[in-house]
């Protein structure tokens, strides 16, 4: 991402120098360009963080579901072992 951002800044600065507007207009355009770059970078960062948060939440939910399934499997195995023992040796 830094390479894209620096390329954008360099290219747009070169384009502005080729257009050769007056210094005040170039300064205003540079300010707007900088603000747009910051806004786009902020939106991309927000998007990445929100995607990571969603992925992390799904991973946690999957881990909880896995632990619950393993606990249910252990309970079933213990129940069947106990019932097998009761069938072999009734009270």
Summarize the structure.
By secondary structure, this protein is mostly helical. The protein is built from two helices and no strands.
* Percent of residues in beta strands: under 5%
Helix content: over 70%
The count of β-strands is 0
How would you state the average pLDDT, rounded?
85
End-to-end Cα distance = 73 Å
Radius of gyration: 31 Å
SSE blueprint:
Elements lengths: L1 H18 L3 H66 L3
Helix pairs in contact: 1-2
How would you characterize this protein structure?
With 91 residues, the chain is mostly helical. 0% of the residues are buried.
Characteristic key phrases:
single chain; mainly alpha; 91 residues; 2 helices
